[in-house]
């Protein structure tokens, strides 16, 4: 390759002691960039509400299998340099090289690689994995690494504040610097004395809630990273703090104020001009509860609130009464969440250094005060093989590769404060995780809320963290353990044994999780043995983050640990336009469950119409749970979410960014029970959200927010309802008077015939004529009628794929040998004709799924073990096939045949939906995201904020929200 002149040195030879890099994906002597087909795209982004063009960059270069959404988000979010200047990055190669080569250079300088060969292999494997969306680093890496900006790689920070004015003002300053850089921070205010205690001067202290007001105003003023979204922050207070009740009720009381102001006519939507008049809206609040308090709740006893000065009990409260107030506040406004202090610190690897008192804004990173964590997430669906088995060995190898890169980044990283930098360099906390768990479970036929689903998730998470700590111990053998390891060695090794013991408790239920678990068991055995000998390079290794923006970068169907958001999705198309599609893992799941052919097609068609699987034709009720989603007609129960978190928590260094959604009619007692069961099941943190509990959630029309039920009823009584009925009908696209055509003579079983195919100017098939038998014979008449029927269907937009599915493999005479080298045997005339049409007019992806190949492709398969197309469209992403469906439908243009030529290599038997056009259809003009599409199916507004950048309704991602249109998030990742 010549695109980048400054790649890692190709000098060979031994370097000495270092990590040996294993080949995973790459081909010796071939750079990963040379194995894919690249294309140039125009990225134009608009705010659909205002019509304003907010971004435009034309001619950006991406692999042809990257979706429009992924390339748009990467271009707008991660390309560096001013648009329109020579310094602006113009393609994915430049972006990946900027990051990867920085990591390689630092790895070589700090002695991570055993040889230059290992350094080069590390470069190629890391490049391949990023290029093929196998994993992604968190956003700050893409923002900063390899630029002239400070090399900040961390998304998550934990600060500290003491009981002094200097410390409190320093908190404001440090938090502001972090927000300015586009990241988020959390801290615990429990060291600040309460408003019920005295100052040294004799006056009464202000209390932490008072100081929260100033920090909230600061956060609301500083736009995060110079963008339009608010800052992300977490505020924690211990349950034994004397001001705990004031803290608990703070945001609930502000919600009452928002409601009153809204009813008085003020604009109280998120981002509204009057919302700034209320306080405490820029932070997530959490109560840090300990086992003593939870046992008091369980037993119905009193609990003491303690002085911050000497720890003496200054007030006694009824534990259940305080617990009820926490649940009621969460019922009213979704705050506060809960953090379980004793559970968190029982899994703490560095207790000799200090306790864990707080978390980052999304609650997945929990570690020492004044520390930072850089994150990366693996795309689980990339490890699901064609035979529906999980490639656990490759998953382990990729985890080891990525954790190596993440540790290298700390060697060159910059931090917002010196104290954060020092703690992070001393303890080297990492946060590897994954995305697409929900899609993986569905594709393998597991319900999210099922024992099988939880067993599979637990096994994968155990292997993830086991592989990460195994590599951490191997790196420690090369460059030494983290600086704080010596004083915490016993505690760290104790936590490793706790992880190992938890792994031994996993009960596997089938082959897929059994195979993963066996590999995880071996990994944990290696972790304990290697750690005993070498120590560990990293105090922490894993978390489960929201994966909002990077989830879109990897074209994930689901984020983090979340289930699928909905079964029907909104999808942008190449060249503009959009479609409503059925989740592409659904046909694969149906096939895994034993459904075939027309049944799969009928179920997918039903889902496309209804948005759910209830009463879908041919679908067994016992399989409904596989297709349960976060939202919609069959939404997962609150305890289903909690149990999934509990299944994975014992295998994580940190915690899980996830919000447990409850319906609007959920009770305060149900929220209290969810929080209580979280403690019982060993979670580290838990947050809830009751539908429509917050007033300040804008509706899709940009008007005022959801009103109280009484107001709604009055409005409905006065309103004149006008129902607009829109009927969509297919439009016939006639061929031009003069059109190109080709005639193929053929013989099937000794019987001769002729096939004439006419095409549009684009090269798309529009008509066929079959001549078989003498003119005037019955057979000739039937063939003429059949040809006309197929031709009209093609002109009305029926995809050729649908005809090929229906008419290939039909058996009747004449049948047998043909004179066509590409189709040597045919089971009937129809079988031959539609195989020939498929070869001439269908893209390779779809033909490959159907098992229809040319003689040349079959020959290459025998040589290489892979089918290599000699024409047609390519891509290794399932979404590409759907895009070809959409392009052949009346609502989208088809690409000319000459524009889709390629030389990419496609794995044999790549799984595709095979659902015809059932999963792709036109979207009405008022739908701009999957959240809005779900509103259409549900008939009610989704409780989510609008993106302040592009106006699209956001959707949940962990405990944050993420925009499908531009990738903006309300969190810190």
Automatic annotation (TrEMBL):
Record field: catalytic activity: a 2'-deoxyribonucleoside 5'-diphosphate + [thioredoxin]-disulfide + H2O = a ribonucleoside 5'-diphosphate + [thioredoxin]-dithiol
GO terms, biological process: DNA biosynthetic process
CDD domains: RNR_II_dimer (cd02888)
Reported cofactor(s): adenosylcob(III)alamin
Record family assignment: Belongs to the ribonucleoside diphosphate reductase class-2 family.
Record-linked SUPFAM superfamilies: PFL-like glycyl radical enzymes
Keywords (A to Z) from UniProt: Cobalamin, Cobalt, Disulfide bond, DNA synthesis, Nucleotide-binding, Oxidoreductase
Record keyword Nucleotide-binding present: yes
Keyword Transcription regulation among record annotations: no
Ribonucleotide reductase class II vitamin B12-dependent N-terminal domain: residues covered: 43-133
Enzyme Commission no: 1.17.4.1
Protein source organism: Lapillicoccus jejuensis
Protein name: Vitamin B12-dependent ribonucleotide reductase
Region spans: Disordered: 860-901
């Amino acid at each position: 390759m010549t695109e980048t002149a400054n790649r890692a040195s190709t000098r060979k030879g031994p370097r000495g002691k270092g990590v040996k890099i294993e080949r995973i994906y790459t081909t010796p002597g071939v750079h990963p960039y040379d194995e894919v087909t690249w294309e140039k795209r125009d990225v134009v982004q608009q705010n659909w509400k205002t019509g304003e063009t907010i971004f435009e960059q034309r001619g950006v270069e991406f692999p042809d299998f990257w979706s429009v959404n992924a390339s748009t988000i990467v271009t707008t979010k991660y390309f560096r340099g001013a648009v329109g200047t020579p310094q602006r990055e113009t393609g994915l190669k430049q972006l990946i090289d900027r990051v990867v080569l920085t990591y390689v250079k630092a790895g070589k300088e700090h002695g991570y690689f055993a040889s230059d060969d290992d350094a080069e292999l590390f470069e190629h494997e890391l490049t391949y994995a990023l290029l093929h969306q196998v994993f992604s680093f968190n956003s700050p890496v893409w923002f900063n690494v390899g630029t002239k900006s400070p090399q900040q790689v961390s998304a998550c920070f934990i600060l500290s504040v003491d009981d002094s004015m200097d410390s409190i003002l320093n908190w404001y300053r440090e938090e502001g610097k972090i927000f300015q850089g586009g990241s988020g921070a959390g801290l615990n205010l429990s060291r600040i004395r309460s408003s019920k205690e005295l100052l040294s001067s004799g006056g009464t202290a202000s209390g932490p809630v008072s100081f929260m007001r100033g920090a909230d105003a600061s956060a609301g003023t500083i736009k995060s990273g110079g963008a339009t979204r608010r800052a992300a922050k977490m505020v924690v207070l211990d349950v034994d703090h004397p001001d705990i009740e004031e803290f608990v009720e703070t945001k609930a009381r502000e919600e009452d104020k928002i409601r009153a102001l809204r009813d008085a006519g003020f604009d109280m939507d998120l981002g509204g001009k009057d919302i700034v008049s209320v306080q405490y809206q820029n932070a997530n609040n959490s109560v840090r509860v300990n086992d003593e308090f939870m046992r008091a709740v369980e037993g119905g006893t009193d609990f003491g609130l303690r002085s911050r000065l000497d720890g003496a009990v200054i007030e006694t409260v009824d534990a259940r009464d305080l617990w009820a107030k926490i649940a009621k506040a969460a019922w009213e406004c979704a705050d506060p969440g809960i953090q379980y202090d004793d559970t968190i610190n029982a899994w703490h690897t560095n207790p000799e250094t200090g306790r864990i008192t707080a978390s980052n804004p999304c609650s997945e990173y929990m570690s020492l005060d004044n520390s930072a964590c850089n994150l990366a997430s693996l795309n689980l669906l990339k490890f699901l093989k064609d035979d529906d088995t999980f490639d656990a060995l490759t998953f382990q190898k990729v985890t080891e590769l990525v954790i190596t890169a993440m540790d290298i980044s700390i060697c060159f990283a910059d931090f917002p404060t010196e104290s954060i930098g020092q703690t992070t360099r001393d303890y080297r906390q990492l946060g590897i995780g994954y995305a697409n768990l929900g899609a993986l479970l569905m594709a393998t036929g597991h319900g999210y809320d099922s024992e099988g689903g939880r067993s599979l998730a637990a096994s994968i998470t155990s292997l993830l963290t086991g592989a990460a700590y195994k590599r951490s111990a191997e790196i420690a053998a090369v460059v030494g353990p983290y600086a704080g390891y010596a004083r915490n060695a016993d505690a760290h090794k104790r936590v490793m044994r706790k992880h190992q013991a938890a792994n031994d408790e996993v009960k596997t239920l089938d082959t897929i999780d059994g195979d993963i678990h066996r590999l995880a068991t071996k990994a944990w055995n290696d972790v304990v043995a290697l750690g005993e000998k070498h120590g560990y390079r990293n105090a922490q290794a894993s978390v489960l983050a929201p994966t909002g923006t990077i989830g879109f970068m990897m074209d994930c169907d689901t984020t983090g640990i979340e289930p699928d958001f909905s079964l029907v999705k909104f999808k942008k198309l190449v060249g503009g336009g959009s479609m409503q599609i059925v989740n592409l893992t659904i046909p694969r799941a149906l096939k895994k469950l034993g459904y075939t052919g027309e049944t799969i097609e009928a179920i997918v068609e039903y889902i496309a119409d209804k948005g759910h699987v209830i009463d879908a034709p041919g679908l067994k009720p016992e399989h409904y749970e596989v297709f349960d989603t976060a939202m919609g007609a069959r939404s997962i129960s609150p305890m289903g979410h909690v149990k999934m978190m509990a299944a994975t928590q014992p295998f994580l260094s940190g915690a899980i960014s996830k919000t447990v959604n409850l319906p609007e009619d959920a009770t305060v007692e149900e929220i209290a029970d969810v929080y209580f069961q979280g403690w019982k099941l060993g979670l580290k943190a838990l947050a809830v959200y009751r539908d429509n509990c917050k007033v300040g959630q804008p509706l899709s029309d940009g008007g005022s927010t959801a009103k109280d039920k009484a107001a709604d009823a009055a409005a409905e009584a006065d309103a004149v309802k006008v129902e607009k009925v829109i009927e969509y009908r297919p439009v016939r696209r006639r061929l031009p008077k003069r059109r190109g055509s080709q005639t193929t003579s053929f013989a099937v079983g000794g019987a001769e015939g002729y096939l004439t195919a006419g095409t549009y100017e684009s090269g798309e098939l529009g008509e066929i004529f079959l001549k078989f038998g003498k003119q005037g014979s019955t057979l000739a008449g039937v063939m003429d009628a059949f040809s006309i029927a197929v031709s009209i269907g093609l002109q009305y937009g029926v995809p050729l794929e649908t005809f090929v599915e229906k008419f290939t493999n039909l058996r009747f005479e004449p049948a047998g040998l043909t004179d066509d080298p590409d189709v040597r045997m045919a089971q009937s005339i129809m079988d031959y004709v539609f195989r020939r049409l498929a070869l001439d007019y269908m893209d390779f992806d779809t033909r490959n799924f159907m098992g229809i190949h040319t003689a040349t492709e079959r020959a290459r398969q025998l040589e290489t073990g892979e089918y290599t197309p000699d024409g047609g469209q390519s891509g290794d992403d399932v979404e590409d096939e759907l895009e070809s469906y959409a392009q052949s439908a009346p609502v989208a243009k088809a690409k000319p045949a000459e524009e889709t030529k390629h030389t990419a290599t496609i794995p044999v038997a790549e799984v595709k939906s095979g659902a015809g056009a059932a999963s792709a259809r036109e979207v009405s003009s008022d739908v701009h995201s999957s959240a809005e599409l779900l509103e259409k199916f549900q008939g009610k507004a989704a409780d989510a904020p609008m993106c302040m950048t592009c106006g699209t309704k956001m959707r949940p991602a962990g405990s944050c929200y993420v925009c499908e249109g531009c990738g903006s998030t309300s969190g810190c990742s």
